[in-house]
Amino acid sequence: QVQLVESGGGLVQAGGSLRLSCAASGSTISSYAMGWFRQAPGKEREFVATISWSGSIPYYADSVKGRFTISRDNAKNTVYLQMNSLKPEDTAVYYCAAASAQNIRVMRYEYDYWGQGTQVTVSS
Asked: Does the structure show a pLDDT above 90 at 16?
């Protein structure tokens, strides 16, 4: 079992930056692919970014490519999402997830464990 806890969300103006963290416990995440998803009010949860178990392969949704960076520190059992040039349409609850796989995963059903989410609000 893997427990995931996100932090770092908040209110930021358009063009600003936030760094989300996802701390894992219960098991090491070094054998898991990790991902970030988000869900805006009235919308389905959507893929944002994923990273392979070693951290060597990141992959992003087109909507965040070039602005967001996913990274991981397996020694600290933590995954990060650096978000730059934020836009109002990035407003959502952001969820961290772990998939029992080594390579990147982009589909919700491929993930086995989820955090409770952290709110990100971008004002215009």
From this structure: yes
